[in-house]
Design a protein that fits this description.
Structural class: alpha+beta
Order of helices and strands: EHHHEEHHEHEHEEE
Helix content: 40-55%
Amino acid sequence: MGVRIRRAEQGDRERIVRLLDTAFMDDPVSGWVFPGEEYRRARHAGLMGVFTDATLAEGYADLLEDGSAVALWMDVPDHPHADADPDAEENGPAQVREAVDPDNARIEEIARTLDRTHPQGRAHTYLWMIGVAPGRQGEGLGTSLMAPVLERCDREGRPAYLEASSARSRALYERLGFAFTGTAIELPDGPTMWPMWREPQAG
């Protein structure tokens, strides 16, 4: 598939937030974090904005030229940086909740849950989110968007990690070489998420 991918810049922020907002509006996890369609439409974009800002500051976002898909990536070191502030890391989920909706405990709960389950001790590339515009899903755009980063991981001998938020996305990631870690994330009274790990592949 002849898709053109570029590295997103700060000027792409609003475009990315709008894309993620629409792509994940009907996602099972988004529905759990923001129950009720009216409430979700009012608050969901705020959380996507926090994720986008964190990625543009500390990671990188790859965007299809036509704006139909975006992937948020982080390169995670094998150990936390020596100058990292442990208090800031501990308070991060609460700060996200405060920024998006202080009355919604689920925002903080899912952030802490994902922090606890994230693999430690081995450097890897983390696919935080990948969103495809609703009218373009099923065209292979997500796979094309991921391919260059996974190829880099293979060249550098670097594993990759993500959390699948639906059975459909889990099946897609399995075709790309990711494997379920064996311990699912069961959100209270909510959907299941599947942590998935991909070892670098030769050839």
